[in-house]
Design brief:
Layout: H1 2-10, E1 15-20, E2 23-27, H2 28-38, E3 43-47, E4 50-58, H3 62-71, E5 76-81, E6 94-100, E7 119-124, E8 129-135, E9 140-146, H4 148-158, E10 162-166, H5 170-177, E11 183-186, H6 193-204, H7 218-233, E12 246-247, E13 255-256, H8 258-263, H9 277-281, H10 287-298, H11 304-319, H12 321-332, H13 337-346, H14 351-372, H15 377-385, H16 390-399, H17 420-430, H18 432-447, E14 453-457, E15 461-467, E16 479-483, E17 487-491, H19 493-524, H20 528-554, E18 560-562, E19 567-572, H21 577-580, E20 590-594, E21 601-605, H22 612-628, E22 636-640, E23 644-649, H23 661-673, E24 680-685, H24 693-709, E25 715-719, H25 728-731, E26 735-744, E27 749-757, H26 765-771, H27 776-792, H28 795-810, H29 819-829, H30 838-859
Parallel strand pairs: 1-5, 7-10, 9-12, 10-11, 13-23, 18-22, 21-25, 21-26, 23-24, 24-25
Antiparallel strand pairs: 1-2, 2-4, 3-4, 5-6, 7-8, 8-9, 14-15, 15-17, 16-17, 19-20, 19-22, 26-27
Helix pairs in contact: 6-7, 10-20, 11-20, 12-14, 12-20, 13-14, 13-20, 14-15, 14-16, 15-20, 17-19, 26-27
Length: 860
């Protein structure tokens, strides 16, 4: 327990798994936590008078239990026996060999194949924040810095599994980014510029960071230093696979704030069992491809040339289906190259995985062959960059057995014919049968005992068994070891010698196999970079193949991307909703045309449930998919590159954060209006409905006017059920009215979901309530109230008020060129308030009033 306590004090905030014999044990608080999370039995024992809780599991079940602990957000320190208990008379030396945390894991049961497992650090600078992401399982290391909005977006996009923050900024982090992340708070001294630079240059073995193009990101460098420091703290010191630091070049990608990422349901949805965009578009076959696709979705391109290059590959593969099928067939044969080579670097790879790495590299050769003489330039470039790693494959083939085991101690790892010594030892250990048979024949002949048997057991090894009927024929030099009911067992000198030889050979085989395997792993580390590069190329190819397959399966077309500022989508569909429709039902496609000259803002009115939101979202998704490099769900699409996409969907409560719906809505809308650009696409859905009708209409009107008058002239789709906003198109020439059409039957409504020009007259809220099964009397009453309201607040009156307000806005409130107002102003300025009696003040006020009324009569 002393030894346990010493180790535990070094890792106070981790759950310590302490190896005792064949078990991993947890004690005290840790045991209480572990038993709850793992559902194992909690016992206790009295150690030196103190009652200590205790919970444990067999050491070979580590891979079953460890993932559960980490997924529950625990940091787990694995404390192993560092020497063989047989070799020591005192207590076995123990130490922590690995600290596994939600963000630092190499274990396949913890990792998701198609998702990165990022560890992230956020550093709070004076004006900006620095951020860094590392995935120890793939070797990716990324850095950026920016405002809290930019950092928030990156956190949403990269979804790190663990975030490191300095203890002093705990509160600030939670206020800015919420508490949905697993955070770990670190000492302040780690967040120092010079310490971070030193950590990084030591790791990369360089003098400066200029070569990575990140030298100017001082806050980002601090965050990167913190991440590396944390890896060494968690016992991960073999990190040759983390061999470059890349900047996330925000300016190259489409800007989406976190609300947009959430509203468009790109990766997650707040609804249970909802299907997200990534679920629909991910047709990748390799883990590397799946991760790459996620990255492309998080960071759609803005560079027309780069987007076109992706489209050309997709188009070429789309037209050459046999080629596509062949490439995909070979990609399917591959394991996770990136994670396998990372395991080589960290020394955690097992024999079976080495064979898997070789087979994956072999599957790469036919791909290289297939695309190296393609007419498509981008595909040829991928082929040129693929490294065939001939030596690596040959060496593994020569050294490792094709059926190598997962555990080197449990089976044959090194191939026959590689090491002479090993072959000899195996001969001794495994050709024992022949030797024993010869011996048996010889002894039977010598003694005349016909029923002799040679066997072995765990207690005293090899023995000769003699039936009781032949007991009197046993030679004197045999030593009796065991008496059974009907037989006796003996050992001989020759048997003992032979046994020692076999056991010695088996032990030596194990040692030699481990030795040779370790040498191979060290030698393989030369190939980390080429294999990582291969993984990247295959990931790209896999993603592009996936896009071609997606386009084929779902009738997508190639969009035209250019530098104009117009978006023209014909027959656009929502990629996710169209896949969810009941059998036989067609998705109603719609056209959308937006530009900065004639049709900058489209006001879409129409009843609830008519599909306004779907039209808004599908427009954004078509643009996004096009700029990722995919084909799009439309009969044709011409897209002038968009640089920012903003969406704001009304009334999604954030009560858990203690903010009202309306406040959240206004915050988000304000952030849109303050960040507009000429290439922005703005989607506003039901803005202002979180407050009273008149407030809502006024806010929606003012926002629309602001967007129209703003020099950026951002392209906007505004869905609303305030029909009064249709009047805006009279005054503002670039606002156009559209409605989602509805067919009225006698007392029912048919939603046609088609976008047609012109505003819609009234909403069908009561019809929708009826469809939802609201009691008859409620519907009846609602209709009565509606009629009354419509009479008292006729929409003409409201519109007139809005129009007059519009005119008032043009006028200045105080016309100071009016001589009367000048006179009153002079009067007031020259008053000496301190000497004025109340009566005099009233008389003065009366005089001013008289002046004004006299003037009013004169003007009327």
């Amino acid at each position: 327990m002393q030894q346990y306590n010493t180790i535990k004090t070094k890792y106070p905030d981790a759950l310590l798994l302490f190896r005792v014999g064949d078990f991993y044990e947890t004690f005290g608080e840790d045991a209480v936590k572990a038993s709850k999370i793992l559902g194992i039995i909690l016992t206790h024992r009295n150690n030196g008078g103190d009652r200590t809780e205790l919970a444990g599991f067999p050491h070979h079940s580590l891979n079953t239990y460890l993932p559960k602990l980490v997924k529950a957000g625990q940091r787990v320190a694995i404390c192993d026996q560092l020497e063989d208990p047989k070799m020591t008379k005192t207590i076995v030396k123990r130490g922590v060999t690995e600290l596994v945390t939600p963000g630092v894991a190499m274990n396949d049961d913890i990792l998701h194949a198609k998702a990165n497992n990022f560890l992230c650090a956020v550093h709070f600078g004076r004006s900006l924040l620095g951020i860094s992401f590392v995935d120890i399982s793939t070797g990716e290391f990324l850095v950026s810095e920016g405002t809290d909005e930019q950092i928030d977006k990156l956190l949403q996009n990269f979804a790190p599994n663990e975030v490191l923050v300095s203890k002093t900024h705990r509160k600030e982090f939670q206020e800015l980014f919420g508490n949905q992340f697993h955070t770990f708070f670190m000492e302040d001294w780690v967040f120092q510029d010079d310490y971070a630079r030193e950590t990084l240059t030591d790791h990369f073995k360089t003098n400066t960071l200029k070569g990575f193009g990140v030298d100017h990101l001082s806050h980002g460098i601090v965050a990167s230093g913190v991440v590396l420091h944390y890896l060494s703290e968690t016992q991960h010191r073999r990190l040759q696979h983390i061999n470059t630091l890349k900047r996330i070049a925000e300016e190259e990608y489409v800007w989406m704030d976190r609300f947009t990422i959430r509203n468009l349901e790109l990766y997650h949805s707040n609804h249970q069992n909802a299907v997200t965009l990534i679920d629909i578009i991910d047709k990748t076959l390799s883990p590397m491809g799946g991760r790459m696709l996620k990255r492309w979705l998080a960071l759609p391109l803005k560079n027309v040339e780069k987007i076109r290059r992706r489209h050309q590959v997709v188009s070429y593969l789309y037209e050459n289906d046999p080629l596509l099928k062949k490439i995909q067939h070979h990609i399917k044969q591959m394991g996770d190259l990136e994670r396998l080579i990372s395991k080589v670097a960290t020394g955690k790879i097992n024999p079976k995985e080495v064979v898997q790495l070789k087979n994956s590299l072999e599957a790469l050769l036919p791909i290289k062959q297939l695309i190296s003489d393609c007419p498509n330039e981008a595909l040829r470039a991928i082929a040129d960059r693929l490294h065939s790693c001939d030596e690596l494959r040959a060496k593994i083939k020569e050294m490792i057995c094709e059926e190598a085991p997962v555990n080197i101690l449990k089976g044959k790892t090194i191939a026959d014919g590689y090491s002479e010594e090993l072959d000899d030892l195996r001969n001794i250990a495994f050709s024992g049968k022949d030797y024993l048979n010869q011996m048996l024949e010889r002894e039977t002949e010598r003694t005349g005992i016909t029923s002799l048997k040679i066997a072995s057991n765990n207690v005293f090894g090899y023995y000769i068994e003699v039936r009781n009927t032949h007991k009197d024929k046993v030679p004197e030099e045999w030593v009796r070891k065991q008496t059974l009911v009907s037989a006796e067992r003996y050992i001989t000198q020759e048997l003992k010698e032979y046994e020692a030889k076999i056991l010695g050979a088996e032990e030596r085989i194990l040692t030699l196999e481990q030795q040779l395997f370790s040498q191979l792993i060290v030698w393989m580390q030369e190939y980390i970079s080429p294999v990582q590069n291969n993984a990247q190329q295959i990931a790209q190819l896999d993603s592009l193949c996936g896009f071609s397959q997606l386009a084929r399966e779902n009738r997508y077309t190639q969009p035209i991307i250019n530098d104009s500022t117009e978006i023209n989508i014909k027959d656009g569909r929502h990629p996710v909703i169209e896949k969810q429709l009941p059998l036989g039902e067609e998705y109603i496609a719609n056209d959308v045309l937006l530009n900065r000259e004639e049709q900058q803002i489209i006001m879409i009115t129409g009843p609830n449930m008519s599909g306004k939101s779907a039209i808004l979202r599908q427009t954004a998704l078509v643009v996004l998919m096009a700029q990722m490099g995919s084909f799009v769900p439309a009969s044709s699409a011409q897209i002038g590159v968009v640089d920012k996409i903003f969406t704001r969907v009304g009334a999604s409560d954030n009560i858990s954060m203690g903010e009202s719906t309306f406040m959240v809505e206004m915050n988000e809308t304000a952030s849109i209006l303050n960040n507009l650009s000429e290439r922005s696409l703005v989607l506003l859905d039901e803005i202002g409905r979180g407050t009273s009708t008149y407030d809502g209409i006024s806010i929606a009107w003012a926002i629309s006017e602001y967007l129209h008058e703003h020099p950026a002239r951002a392209k906007t789709l505004f869905a609303t059920h305030y029909h009064e906003l249709n009047e805006m198109s009279v005054t503002f020439e670039r606002i156009k009215n559209y409605n989602v059409s509805v067919k009225e039957l006698k007392d029912n409504v048919l939603f046609l979901r088609k976008l047609t020009p012109g505003g819609s007259e009234h909403s069908f809220g009561i019809h929708v309530a009826k469809m939802a099964g609201m009691p008859q009397q409620v519907i009846h009453k609602a209709n009565k109230i509606l009629k009354k309201l419509e009479q008292s607040h006729s929409s003409e009156e409201l519109t007139e008020k809005l129009q007059s307000a519009q005119n008032d806005m043009q006028l200045s409130f105080f016309h100071l060129d009016d001589p009367l107002l000048e006179e009153i102003k002079e009067e007031i300025i020259h008053l000496d308030i301190n000497t004025l009696t109340p009566v005099e003040a009233l008389m003065k006020l009366n005089e001013i009033k008289r002046l004004l009324t006299k003037n009013k009569k004169a003007t009327s």
